[in-house]
Each structure stands twice: as C-alpha cells, then as structure tokens.
Amino acid sequence: MDALNPELPPAAIDPAPRPPRVWKFWGTALWGVAIFGATFLGQVGVIIFFVMWHGEAVSIESITHVAASGLTISLSVVAGLPMVLLALWIAILPTRMRFSDYLGLHWTSWKNVIVGVIALAVLIGGWDVVSRAAGREVSPGFMGDVLKSAQAEGALWLLVVAFAGAAPIWEELFARGWLFRGWSESFLGPYGAILLSSIIWAVMHLQYDWFFLCEVLSIGLLFGYLRFRTGSTWLTIVLHGLNNLAATIQTWWLAGQ
After folding, report:
1. Chain-centroid distance, C-alpha 235
2. Interatomic CA distance for residues 18 and 95, integer angstroms
3. Is 135 left (phi over 0), alpha (psi -120 to 50) or beta?
4. Which of 202, 198, 229 is nearest to 116 (CA)?
5. 8 Å CB contact between 99 and 65
6. Which of 230, 69, 23, 25 is closest to 162 using CA atoms?
7. Domain presence at residue 10
8. C-beta separation of 228 from 184 below 8 A
9. pLDDT tens digits for 76-100?
10. Domains in the chain, number
C-alpha cells in the first residue's frame, strides 16, 4: 500500500531513468557490420531488380553487366541512404540518445566551414599535382565510365544527386557519425577512432586503384579531424558533397576534351 501513499516522494516510487549510453568498440563494430550489411543489401537489391527487369537470369555475369550502367549505379547509391538511416535508428534506439546527438548532426560556424573548404582544396590540389607529376589520370577511370553511361541513359542528373547528395550523407553518417562516435569513446580515443574509421571508409572504395585509395584515406583523416574538432558531422557531409560534386564536374570536363 506504500505505493498509494501520497506522502511518499516520487523518487521513492519510480526508479530513476537509466542514463544514455554510447556503444563502445565492439558494440560499434558489430552494429557497424549490420549497418553496412543493410546498405549493401539495399544496393544489391536495386541491381538484382534491373537484372530481372531486363529478363536475365540472376548470375555474376548479369549482375556485373547491369552494375556497369550509370543509371543502375546511381539508383543503388540512392537506395543506400534509407537503409543506412533505418539501420542507424535501430542501433541508436537502445542508447536512449537522440539520433542527432549521437551522430553529431549539429551545424557549426561558417568559419569552420571556410577552414574546412580551404583545407580540402589544398589537400585535393596536392594530390592532383602528384598525379600529374606521375603521369597519372587526375580522375579515376571508373568515374569517367560511369558518367558516360549515365549521360547516354539520360540519368546524368540522377548521378549528380547520388554522388554529391546521397552518398556523402550515408557515408558520413556511417563513418564520421556512427563509427567515430563509438570508437572515440572507447580505448581507441579520438585519434585512434579517426584513423580506424578512415581506413574502413577507404576500404569501402575498392573500385579505385591504390593511388586513389590513398587519396581517399587522406580525405577521411581530414574529415575525421574536422569531426573531432568541431563536433559536427554536418560539416563533413557538406565537404564530402562539395568534393564529390567537384570531382564529377572535373571528370565531365576532362571527358569532353
């Protein structure tokens, strides 16, 4: 009957709510595999849909053939975004934290944006100089092939949306949002989290050769540092989008030469 006694303070009746928590190293890693797996399934689902749409049997050959289409690649990249958002929401729900707080979805100052843009421009410019000095292509051949295919299929606008919009959002939410948040509060610390999340992000771009993978890794290290110093994943999303948009325009311009 004590629970019905109005003189008892509320704290004596209801237990204190559990404080929010952050997934540490292994929780972040295991959930990260699940999040990436959900993204992969969404993207492969789009490719398999197009294989069946063309009336072909699902096989490695048919998937490889369809996946070379700029339209298919664009739609598969876009399909990755809702899958990442859903998987992240499920993973963050047990932490009792707000989605935006967990992933660092807070805006930063325009000064930080300008510093980030300048730092990214200097970094990319340095890689372009090295690439030209080594007699290499400034843009990876993969990008040129995809752009030409998308242009031929009338899906150039969709390619831009996918590469400069959808991809930067879900990749940054995964790498600098999810992975960095959990690993930075583990034994790795912020700098260990920056390094490991950047390596994981670079591995996600195995369509490039070793040279461009090194460039991707360096960009990831820059984005990770900016995420750490500003606490804003929105900043890295914007910078990632600007970088992809510039790369798309550069590839389109070079392809027209």
Report:
1. 13
2. 10
3. left
4. 229
5. no
6. 69
7. no
8. yes
9. 999 999 999 999 999 999 999 999 9
10. 1
What are the tens digits of pLDDT across the range 37-85?
999 999 999 989 888 887 788 878 877 777 778 888 899 999 999 999 9
State the Cα–Cα distance between residues 244 and 130, nearest whole angstrom. Answer: 19
Helix axes 25-53, 70-92, angle to 10 degrees: 150
249's tokens: 């325009």
Neighbours of 175 (CB within 10 A): 26
3-state secondary structure of 250: helix
Q: How far is CA 68 from CA 20, 143, 206, 209, in A?
A: 44, 11, 15, 17
Residue 50 phi/psi, 5-degree rounding, is -70, -35
Task: Specify the amino acid at residue 77.
Answer: V
Residue 28 belongs to a domain: yes
Q: Which domain range does residue 130 map to?
A: 19-255
Short-list 195, 190, 193, 192, CA closest to 179: 193
CA angle 230, 235, 146 (to 5 degrees): 145
CB 169 within 8 A of CB 162: no
Question: Would 3 be classed as within a structural domain?
Answer: no
The mean pLDDT of 96-107, rounded to a whole number, is: 96
pTM score > 0.85 for this model? yes
Q: Give a yes or no: residue 12 inside a domain.
A: no
The mean pLDDT value for 226-252 works out to 94
Tally of residues, the chain = 257
List the structure tokens of 81.
Answer: 């975004």
Neighbouring residues of 62: CB distance < 8 A, sequence distance ≥ 6:
51, 54, 56
pLDDT band at 136 (very low <50, low <70, confident <90, very high): confident
Q: What angle do CA 3, 95, 30 make, to 5 degrees?
A: 140
